[in-house]
């Protein structure tokens, strides 16, 4: 009898989580329940499953509204009914037009109009909804004549008085107004709650016809959904047979290209995989992915296929991935096995510049009616909760900032803040808005509106109204079309090398980089700034601790640094065993047999499955449940608990020591959602090597590409520093040489205009296009005559030295610019055959400090270019020890002078600590640790140079200084200001640092985990 229920998927309106709505219906004796969220079908599939469990008949539909005003409710008689409604809602979303006041002539949908919005004429499938409080109106004869069209309409939006208040808060958030400004028309009625069925029937006892009509509507609705069959586009050709034949042909052609005609091992693997792929009818999925990749290759784009798909030799032969599974002994069953009913994921990366071209191809090739992005439900998060709820209560911006930035325990304890906290905490995990999944695309066999309405976000690609978990539940598997700046680095570097040196580098040939001796040496020294995935301080430290000098160790390193493996202590143990392979025993013979390559340590997701099967004795189906849990896809805690119980029972039957089994399962659990499969690590390692190869042999072009992609762990200044260390001569932007992006000519690197903070994009692009079209600028006057620019823009360019080709000092150029612009008329800005020369003035010579330019650069770029930050210090001291010698000072106290690059925050039981990354006066990087006790007395004071005192700890070849004292060192006074001006010390405050915040605990020490290094025997 409940035909209009809202869950919290009615964004910023409903307050009831979906599962709890169904649970309440059970308590109140409801036997049929309709989910009709406002303008969305987000929750209908989870709702159907939840209702089936408790034997409630699910009805699904949509509550259609314009700007919060209810028009009518649609209930699907069947799947065609939901498709009708989806198409109406999609048109409304795409065209940004109001929904019609009267419902269209639906064929498979029942329409219910609210009592106060009844149209003049009604179709057979249309009804009037009447609420209990409206029954008194039926004494009017006019209404009595319409009893045959009336149904019970007891709307459900909230449950308790507190939730009613929460609902009003949500409405105020949605309307962006104070809670006190809400009017009754802007929130639901107090009566919109669920009541016991017998009470509802009692209210309508005098109107049995209304009850009968409602029952008839319920009986007419039969929305059945098959959750078991795939909904993806089935075939690349027209049928399974042709798909299979084409895939087989392409696989064998690729095998010959990759391995030669006589490689029995490769042939056996190809045959094995084709058998499984054909048996599971996934040929079409492979071919669609192959088709997308072939289009990419035809356009000359660089792509990287990664994820579990790289376990497949077929993917390798089809050029989807570039990882040889035979070389790394990749575990095909991790990717595809007969227990897996859904197609596997292919994760494919493109440069962020080229991804949209790939997306346009997919939407065009497979049809806009059949392709859409996965949606995501963006939840209310800690910061946004307190900011949003605080605004409803009228708190000023300063207080909102305090609430959002600080932990709850530090908030003021007045009554308003307590209410903000109370209602804010109720909103945790509530969906706030729908957004687009970053990469997941669905390609459906049927029109996609048969399953969902579509929305059109600002990015311009349609999205479905449910997330990837629901998509998988209902039979869809996404194609992950990703973008990352690492590929942009590689792709752009290759183009720059061709342009600057005339050399063609075939970076797709992975043998070029993987086995390169010099690359491996730099890798083992952690000299990897700018290189994909291996440039962060933590990763560079790990590479040095491992003395990582080959591909296989890098593959392992890419995985063990992941939070799950590192947190469990297995990263520490792997480092120990790698450095001391003769000082441990394998936990058990199974570990030696299955994980010998990684010293008996579970490093990859596949390792977990191997140990679960071979040590735990679990069946393959349980291994697949573990795989899903580790991939973050398994949402069934009950299924995971059953696997755990089976594991311990099986271990006991096999006579394994209980203590060892407990320790092994502890390690297994650490992998959930925070680990890589081996193929994923291998894909990352290949891309890391490609970056490193280019950095090793073409460092200036490589760093230019990194700068232009604005991508990486560090800010632009660090990559400019690396370019200088690589032999580049760095130049400030120049109107006659520079472009919008940074440019390299020989060994000269000209910073792009995009780095000038205050110069607008339009001016920067225009000055370049004008120069390309009409030649170099001959003077400042010539520039002003040709480029529309005001005095502010001219000043920025003069201060950065962009007119240095004139040979005139900056102060003279400023005067000339002002004199020209005083009487300048923009309408005269065009090329003349004869232009009158500007009057020459003899200006007095003004002495300039050699450091004025550096302070100009800091102001405009955030960092100096003409000198290093060390040149600007008042002190001439440069430290007692240089970074290159730190390994010789183990356990010794050293004093160093260093420039702060970045710091990473890590909370601990004793307070916050930081890990710092610095460069010394020679430009070499080193790392520090700052514990809470020290930071209280010697805190960080922003970017700049510091004097550091601390003890060196060399941990497996990698030195870290544990700081005991530090102090920021002052720059010289800014010579652009007089000796009495307070601004003399302001500019240096603009020097930046990279700060990364985290809530993770620090990686444990050996004594905190105490992983066993000796065999355990049964007691």
TrEMBL record:
Catalytic activities: DNA(n) + a 2'-deoxyribonucleoside 5'-triphosphate = DNA(n+1) + diphosphate
A molecular-function term among this protein's GO annotations: 3'-5' exonuclease activity
Keyword annotations of the record: DNA replication, DNA-directed DNA polymerase, Nucleotidyltransferase, Transferase
InterPro entries: DNA_pol3_alpha_NTPase_dom, DNA_pol3_finger, DnaE2/DnaE/PolC, DNAPol_HHH, PHP_dom, Pol/His_phosphatase_N, Pol/histidinol_Pase-like
Domain Polymerase/histidinol phosphatase N-terminal residues, every copy: 1-68
Family matches, as Gene3D superfamilies: 1.10.150.870, Metal-dependent hydrolases
Database matches in Pfam families: DNA_pol3_alpha, DNA_pol3_finger, HHH_6, PHP
CDD domains: PHP_PolIIIA
Residue numbers spanned by region Disordered: 996-1019
Enzyme Commission number, as recorded: 2.7.7.7
Single GO biological process annotation from the record: DNA replication
Protein name per Swiss-Prot or TrEMBL: DNA-directed DNA polymerase
Provenance organism: Flavobacterium lacus
Lineage per the UniProt record: Bacteria, Pseudomonadati, Bacteroidota, Flavobacteriia, Flavobacteriales
């Amino acid at each position: 009898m409940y035909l209009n229920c809202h869950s919290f998927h009615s964004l910023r309106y409903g307050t009831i989580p979906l599962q709890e709505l169904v649970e309440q219906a059970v308590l109140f004796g409801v036997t049929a329940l309709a989910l009709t969220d406002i303008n969305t079908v987000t929750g209908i599939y989870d709702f159907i499953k939840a209702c089936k469990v408790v034997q409630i008949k699910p009805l699904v539909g949509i509550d259609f509204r314009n700007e919060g005003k209810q028009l009518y409710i649609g209930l699907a008689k069947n799947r065609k009914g939901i498709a009708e409604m989806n198409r109406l809602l999609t048109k409304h979303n795409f065209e940004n037009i109001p929904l019609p006041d009267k419902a269209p002539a639906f064929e498979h949908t029942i329409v219910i109009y609210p009592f106060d919005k009844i149209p003049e004429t009604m179709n057979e499938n249309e009804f009037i909804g009447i609420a209990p409080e409206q029954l008194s109106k039926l004494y009017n004869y006019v209404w009595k004549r319409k009893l045959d069209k009336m149904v019970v309409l007891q709307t459900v939006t909230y449950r308790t008085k507190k939730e009613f208040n929460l609902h009003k808060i949500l409405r105020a958030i949605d309307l962006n107004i104070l809670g006190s400004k809400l009017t009754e028309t802007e929130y639901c009625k107090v009566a919109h709650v669920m009541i016991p069925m017998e009470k509802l029937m009692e209210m309508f006892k005098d109107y049995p016809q209304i009850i009968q009509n409602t029952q008839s509507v319920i009986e007419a609705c039969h929305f059945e959904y098959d959750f078991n069959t795939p909904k993806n586009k089935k075939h690349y050709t027209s049928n399974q047979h042709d798909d299979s034949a084409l895939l087989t042909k392409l696989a064998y052609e690729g095998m010959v290209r990759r391995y030669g005609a006589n490689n029995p091992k490769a042939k056996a693997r190809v045959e094995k995989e084709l058998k499984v792929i054909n048996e599971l009818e996934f040929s079409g999925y492979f071919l669609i992915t192959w088709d997308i990749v072939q289009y990419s290759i035809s356009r000359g784009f660089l792509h990287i296929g990664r994820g579990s798909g790289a376990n497949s030799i077929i993917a390798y032969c089809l050029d989807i991935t570039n990882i040889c599974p035979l070389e790394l002994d990749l575990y095909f069953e991790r990717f595809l096995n007969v227990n897996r009913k859904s197609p596997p994921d292919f994760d494919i990366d493109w440069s962020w510049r080229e991804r949209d071209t790939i997306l346009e191809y997919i939407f065009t090739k497979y049809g806009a009616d059949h392709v859409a992005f996965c949606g995501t439900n963006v939840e209310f998060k800690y910061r946004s909760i307190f900011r949003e709820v605080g605004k409803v209560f009228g708190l000023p911006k300063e207080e909102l900032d305090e609430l959002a930035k600080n932990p709850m325990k530090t908030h003021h304890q007045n009554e308003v803040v307590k209410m903000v906290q109370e209602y804010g905490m109720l909103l945790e995990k509530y969906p706030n808005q729908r957004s687009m999944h970053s990469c997941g695309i669905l390609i459906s066999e049927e029109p996609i509106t048969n399953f969902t309405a579509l929305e059109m976000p600002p990015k311009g690609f349609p999205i479905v109204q449910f997330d990837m978990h629901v998509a998988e539940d209902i039979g869809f598997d996404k194609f992950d079309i990703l973008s990352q700046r690492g590929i942009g680095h590689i792709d752009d570097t290759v183009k720059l090398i061709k342009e600057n040196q005339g050399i063609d580098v075939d970076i797709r040939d992975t043998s070029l980089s993987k086995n390169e001796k010099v690359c491996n040496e730099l890798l083992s020294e952690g000299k990897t700034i700018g290189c994909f995935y291996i440039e962060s301080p933590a990763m560079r430290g790990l590479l040095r601790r491992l003395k990582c000098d080959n591909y296989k160790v890098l593959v392992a390193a890419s995985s063990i640094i992941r939070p799950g493996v590192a947190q469990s202590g297995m990263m520490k143990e792997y480092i120990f065993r790698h450095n001391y392979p003769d000082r441990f025993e394998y936990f058990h013979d199974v570990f030696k047999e299955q994980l010998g390559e990684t010293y008996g340590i579970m490093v990859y997701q596949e390792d977990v499955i191997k140990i679960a099967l071979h040590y735990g004795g679990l069946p393959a189906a349980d291994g697949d449940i573990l795989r899903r849990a580790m991939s973050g896809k398994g949402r069934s805690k009950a299924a995971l608990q059953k696997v755990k119980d089976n594991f311990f029972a099986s271990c006991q039957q096999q006579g394994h020591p209980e203590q060892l089994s407990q320790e092994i399962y502890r390690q297994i659990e650490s992998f959930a959602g925070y680990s890589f499969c081996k193929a994923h690590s291998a894909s990352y390692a290949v891309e890391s090597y490609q970056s490193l190869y280019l950095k090793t042999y073409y460092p200036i072009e490589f760093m230019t590409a990194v700068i232009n992609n604005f991508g990486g762990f560090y800010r632009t200044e660090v990559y400019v520093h690396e370019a200088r260390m690589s032999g580049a001569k760095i130049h400030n932007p120049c109107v006659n040489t520079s472009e919008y992006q940074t440019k390299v000519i020989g060994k000269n690197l000209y910073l792009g205009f995009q780095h000038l903070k205050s110069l607008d994009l339009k001016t920067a692009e225009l000055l370049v296009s004008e120069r390309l079209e009409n030649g170099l600028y001959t003077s400042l006057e010539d520039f002003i005559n040709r480029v529309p620019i005001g005095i502010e823009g001219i000043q920025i360019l003069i201060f950065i030295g962009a007119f240095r080709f004139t040979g005139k000092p900056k102060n003279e150029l400023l005067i000339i610019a002002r004199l020209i612009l005083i009487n300048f008329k923009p309408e005269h800005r065009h090329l003349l055959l004869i232009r009158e020369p500007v009057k020459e003035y003899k200006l007095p010579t003004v002495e300039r400090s050699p450091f004025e330019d550096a302070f100009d650069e800091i102001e405009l770029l955030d960092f100096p270019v003409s000198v290093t930050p060390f040149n600007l210090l008042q002190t001439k001291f440069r430290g007692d020890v240089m970074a290159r010698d730190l390994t010789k000072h183990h356990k010794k106290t050293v004093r160093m002078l260093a420039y702060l690059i970045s710091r990473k925050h890590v909370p601990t039981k004793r307070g916050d600590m930081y890990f710092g990354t610095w460069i010394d006066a020679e430009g070499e990087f080193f790392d520090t640790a700052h514990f809470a006790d020290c930071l209280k007395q010697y805190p960080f004071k922003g970017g700049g140079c510091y004097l550091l005192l601390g003890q060196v700890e060399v941990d497996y070849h990698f030195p870290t200084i544990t700081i005991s004292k530090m102090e920021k060192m002052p720059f010289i006074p800014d010579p652009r200001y007089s000796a009495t001006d307070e601004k003399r010390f302001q500019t240096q405050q603009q020097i930046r640092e990279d700060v990364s915040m985290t809530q993770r605990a620090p990686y444990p020490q050996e004594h905190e985990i105490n992983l066993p290094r000796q065999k355990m025997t049964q007691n």
